[in-house]
Design a protein that fits this description.
Elements lengths: L19 H31 L4 H26 L4 H24 L5 H29 L5 H29 L2 H20 L34 H13 L2 H31 L4 H9 L1 H12 L2 H5 L1 H15 L11 H32 L5 H13 L2 H15 L1 H11 L2 H7 L32
Helix pairs in contact: 1-2, 1-4, 1-5, 1-6, 2-4, 2-7, 2-8, 2-14, 2-15, 3-4, 3-6, 4-14, 5-6, 5-9, 5-10, 5-13, 7-14, 8-14, 8-15, 8-16, 8-17, 9-13, 10-13, 12-13, 12-17, 15-16
Length: 458
């Protein structure tokens, strides 16, 4: 028997950290996420601690910031699949820096009231939708498919680092200095991201667009393709919806994500009221408690690069969702502002950050693996729309629960609703995923890999 020559063996994937352009993408993503997580804490805390906003007003503020997910996600996917993703990222970072800079100036002149906060929250939320869809598509166009899990792990690790610094920094700046200073800090982070992403030199080719017929996991067959160069935006949105609806894995992702995001938005609305008003924690302590999800998410990103390949993607998804979501059920049992209470909050948020990040990275890798390159933007946007589109309703629901049932009972009910997500995953094809990720039966013709060579049909 003839042994294969060394030249015929598959070469190992080069380290992503040796790729200068990937490092710039990673650095820009880190700065952008730090700005976003700082802002997500600054605006609600300013409303609660400075403007004395009630439960209903806080729910409306959070819903306004999340409304762009419902309004713009599908359009963002159609646009990103036709544009260079890095151009979208650069422009949205610049615009977010301007919006938060304007908020800082308004605050210095005493004009940063609730109406201004609503405008800023909606603007930053809309730009964040575009950025998030674009960066997911950018990674697929930059790295090889066998590098997706490691690339996602690195980028999600940067988001974890932002979760460590963002909430703590935002809470500290609001408590010790002022909301305008905190808003200016967020603007600075977006400006840093803008500079880093602008320095990426690798040419990015927009894939030749096709409209693949959706494939079901239990019936993988070659499918016809048709060019869609001139397809209107509405038609391209429909193609994205059909593709996701026709794939059993992605359908399950949408359902589980929708259940989680609705309940999580409600939980966080009550949570941001529960900590300062029921447990009597300061803004800085609230920021510290929220920041504990960061180290956990960093640990979850590291685990996501190893556990799915050893235990199976399905086992990891269901188990991590049960452990992460279940951790938040402990919060309503806490009382007072003692050291023990703060340590318990840190432990809960650490566990939640670890296991929720493990779910996030694994789900993102599954979605990217089963989606052809020319559909990446629309698939990501469709899942965002269907999965996270309920977050504004969740925020309003959280405000209603807190007002009608009280903070402690409302938090318990909202957190219990998060357990529906792992139940839906356990009953879906996601639970049966093994150690190796599935691949799309057909990829768009003439799609280019990161080195500019034509990629074959898998």
């Amino acid at each position: 028997m003839r042994l294969p020559s060394s030249s015929s063996r598959p070469s190992p994937s080069p380290s992503l950290w040796r790729d200068t352009d990937f490092r710039r993408l990673w650095a820009g993503q880190t700065a952008s996420q730090l700005g976003e997580h700082t802002t997500l804490v600054v605006l609600p805390l300013f409303a609660v601690l400075t403007l004395d906003a009630g439960a209903g007003q806080l729910g409306v503020l959070r819903a306004v910031g999340q409304a762009p997910i419902l309004l713009l996600s599908l359009l963002a996917g159609a646009w990103v699949d036709r544009w260079r993703a890095r151009t979208v990222m650069v422009l949205t970072d610049a615009a977010r820096a301007v919006a938060l800079g304007a908020a800082a100036v308004a605050g210095l002149f005493g004009l940063l009231g609730l109406p201004t906060l609503f405008v800023v929250a909606f603007t930053v939320g809309a730009l964040s939708v575009l950025f998030d869809v674009a960066y997911q598509a950018s990674l697929v166009r930059m790295v090889r498919r066998d590098q997706l899990v490691r690339g996602n792990s690195a980028l999600e690790g940067s988001r974890s680092a932002a979760q460590i610094g963002g909430p703590a920094l935002g809470g500290a700046l609001v408590s010790l200095l002022s909301a305008p200073v905190a808003a200016a800090a967020g603007a600075l982070f977006f400006a840093v991201s803008f500079v880093s992403l602008r320095r990426i030199r690798r040419p990015e080719s927009v894939p030749e667009h096709v409209a693949p017929v959706p494939e079901r996991p239990d019936h993988l067959v070659p499918v016809p393709e048709r060019p869609d160069h001139a397809a209107p935006v509405r038609g391209r949105i429909r193609e994205g919806l059909r593709f996701v609806a026709g794939n059993a894995w992605l359908r399950a992702v949408c359902l589980a994500s929708a259940a989680f995001q609705l309940s999580f938005a409600a939980t966080m609305t009550v949570y941001l009221l529960f900590l300062p008003r029921e447990l009597h924690l300061t803004g800085a302590t609230v920021g510290l408690a929220l920041a504990a999800t960061g180290p956990g998410a960093l640990l979850g990103s590291v685990l996501a690069a190893r556990l799915p390949g050893r235990l199976g993607h399905g086992v990891v998804l269901v188990s991590a969702a049960v452990l992460g979501n279940g951790a938040l059920l402990c919060v309503p049992a806490l009382h007072g502002s003692s050291t023990a209470t703060i340590l318990a909050l840190l432990a809960v948020n650490l566990a939640f950050g670890t296991f929720s990040q493990l779910v996030n990275v694994t789900v993102m890798s599954v979605r990217q693996a089963v989606t052809p390159d020319g559909m990446q933007g629309r698939a990501a946007a469709t899942i965002t729309f269907l999965g996270m589109g309920f977050t504004p309703l969740g925020s309003l629901l959280g405000g209603l629960l807190a007002r009608e049932w009280g903070l402690r009972t409302g938090l318990l009910v909202a957190a219990a609703g998060m357990m529906l997500s792992p139940v839906l995953m356990a009953a879906s094809p996601l639970a049966r995923l093994g150690r190796v990720l599935p691949v799309p039966r057909k990829e768009p013709r003439n799609a280019l890999d990161s080195g500019g060579r034509s990629r074959g049909t898998s």
